[in-house]
Amino acid sequence: MTFKILTDSTADLPENWTQENDVQVLGLTIQLDGQTYETVGAGKLTSQELLDKMESGSKPTTSQINVGQFEDVFRGYAKEGTPVLYVAFASALSGTYQSAVMAREIVLEDFPDALIRIIDTKAASMGEGLLVMKAAEARAAGQTLEQTADLIESLVPKVKTYFLVDDLNHLMRGGRISKTAALMGSLVNIKPVIAVKGDGRLDSVAKVRGKKKAQTEVVRMTLEDIADPRVVIAYAGADSQEVAQVLKEQLLMSEQINDVLVLPLGPVIATHTGPGTLGLFSIAHENQD
């Protein structure tokens, strides 16, 4: 029996890819200038619209997917007898994962035989997205839900994520980093490299003088211990898109890499990182600290 793959809008996967690969995306919402915006479906808020507002001084916030939304989706598949694999945003960064766990328990009370597997990716943006892609590839190759879930669980600690962020105050406002870390990032010409740690927390792992040196450093760190020939670069805004293309060329010079996807950072993650952000995502041989 085949199964349904679900993820959320923090995975930053292209809409055409999710449609072609039968992946359902549930959306977190964004509060911006007194209005609430969806991040999936018709009329959704685009990353560029969000970034333009932020550059004009707007301070958006995000809201997790609630228990009721998950319950409706899980219940629908349970009624059909369709197994579900939900590949979720890092629990350390959002309550979305816990909402899904609570909804599953509610649905299992009425449908005790329903199969609903939930994976905390401990990742964000295309770190999460890479795992969704691996799940879709495994399903297409004929793997069962349990086989696919076990594969993804084994890859979770191997996902490497590095962010270069122009203004760390966005992450500080959302409670993702400390005031001390944000202050360090404001020092003249110092560019901290932010990583998603093994437990899903954000942490500064390097402090580099100058943007170009920082960009060189994240390429070096990405190539270190890399296990999968696919790398994703996410950007927030036109300037960082140009840099992303330069980094792509640098990565492709390595014999270890044969595919570099360059994609816009989705609006939920961009809310917390701001304009000018670059993210590099890959899968390593060794588990991340």
UniProtKB/TrEMBL annotation:
Pfam families: DegV (PF02645). It comes from the Bacteria. One of its GO terms (molecular function) is lipid binding. InterPro entries: DegV (IPR003797), DegV_C (IPR043168), DegV_domain_contain (IPR050270). The keyword Amino-acid biosynthesis does not apply. Keywords: Lipid-binding. NCBIfam families: DegV (TIGR00762). May bind long-chain fatty acids, such as palmitate, and may play a role in lipid transport or fatty acid metabolism. This is Putative fatty acid binding protein.
